[in-house]
Design brief:
27% helix, 5-stranded antiparallel β-sheet, 19 strands, alpha+beta, 10-stranded mixed β-sheet, Rossmann fold, 388 residues
């Protein structure tokens, strides 16, 4: 790299560190230094950006001037596309630096800690950790062996040698345990107990607990003698679902035909407008419920939100309605929208609580979500870890 090229990325990295400090995403000088020192463009040499007008994907060389501006900004970078559905869709990404630094702050990482990362990705987070803690204190696992090899090579080229392992992240890395901190950049429907077992007695983990489709948030859990326990973070964030390398398509029954109509006052798209409500609803809904929109065939304008489940049940909720009252059409053995209505009613009855009032307790044999206190009257069971 030329002297000018090095100066270009370093000045941008320092500006990014300053921006994250001004926004409150970075409050620690050690992380500010790491952001300014790690050449993110070397770990993400190309990215893809979708044009607003046409929807076409544009490949970006991150070492170019425009690419450097993009890679050293608080932006999620699309790093891979997939065309298996007949359309190009984003299939992999590099987490926004501001989110990554907020997560490291919540995790309360300090010198002397040994950290396990679940989900290696591009290696950027591993580089930040290695810059602060040293190579010997950083471990990262990902099920995609090719991705791990690429990340290992690129990290080595910029001077970092953390331990990277290609394996199913649900098992953690027992051969290198215990860890003071565990951070997951993929979502799970319940807490893998293997992670809890690999924490030190005063350890902490941060993970994206996502039940069903888009229903969840980051939760920080502290190790206790018989459990891990903690609350959801105030700011919502989510990651792609953990992939095990063996996941098969979920079989779906034919769509039910006999439908009924009624009215509802629950928000039609809670996964966007009322995320806590949607999370509570997902705790009662069957697994693998799909969400979507029905478009007007003439205007292509969204006119209804839709739910569907593998047993053929479905629901359609009009987006518009007089006085907040909307039409619901349902069919199949499960009244899918009833779970949303019940969750919304309970949420209103609780005083419309936001994420920090909710928490999670996980023990070897059971796990649950709670409101305000772990042993209080308002709790919801989580799926058993065996379902991971």
């Amino acid at each position: 790299m030329t002297a000018r090229g090095a100066a270009d990325w370093r000045s941008r990295a320092r500006r990014l560190a300053l921006l994250l400090s001004e926004r409150g995403d970075v409050t620690d000088d050690a992380w500010r230094s790491a952001v300014g020192a790690v050449p993110r463009h070397r770990l993400v040499p190309e990215a893809y950006r979708q044009e607003a007008g046409t929807g076409a994907w544009q490949r970006i060389d991150t070492a170019s001037d425009g690419g450097l501006d993009l890679v050293y900004s608080p932006t999620t970078l699309v790093t891979a596309l997939d065309d298996s559905s007949g359309h190009l869709l984003a299939s992999s990404s590099s987490t926004k630096p501001d989110l990554m630094l907020r997560m490291l702050h919540v995790l309360d990482v300090h010198e002397g800690h040994r950290v396990l990362e679940i989900g290696t990705g591009t290696g950027y987070n591993a580089a930040l950790l290695a810059h602060r803690l040293g190579d010997d204190a950083v471990y990262s696992v990902d099920v995609d062996g090719e991705l791990v090899d690429v990340a290992r090579h690129r990290l080595s080229e910029i001077g970092f040698e953390p331990t990277l392992v290609a394996a199913d992240g649900v098992e953690g890395l027992p051969e290198h345990a215990p860890f003071d901190r565990i951070i997951s950049t993929c979502s799970v429907p319940s807490v893998p107990w293997s992670w809890a077992e690999q924490l030190t007695s005063d350890g902490k983990m941060l993970l994206d607990l996502k039940v069903g489709n888009a229903g969840g948030n980051l939760v920080a859990l502290d190790r206790r003698p018989d459990r891990v326990e903690g609350r959801f973070t105030a700011r919502w964030a989510t990651f792609m679902t953990m992939w095990h390398g063996r996941d098969a398509p979920v079989p779906r029954a034919p769509r039910a035909t006999c439908s009924t109509e009624r009215s509802t006052t629950a928000p039609p798209r809670p996964w966007e407008s009322h995320r806590v409500v949607w999370f509570l609803a997902q705790l009662a809904l069957p697994r693998h419920v799909g969400i979507g929109l029905r478009l007007d065939p003439d205007t292509l304008r969204p006119v209804a939100a839709t739910l569907d489940s593998p047993d053929g049940s479905w629901a359609s909720v009009d987006l518009d309605g007089a006085g907040g009252i909307r039409r619901v059409v349902e069919a199949g053995p499960i009244r899918l929208w009833a779970s949303v209505e019940d969750a919304h009613d309970r949420w209103v009855g609780f005083g419309e609580p936001d994420w920090p009032r909710f928490g999670v307790t996980a023990q070897p044999d059971r796990q649950w979500v709670w409101l305000d206190v772990p042993a209080g009257p308002n709790t919801w069971p989580l799926p058993p870890p065996s379902d991971l």
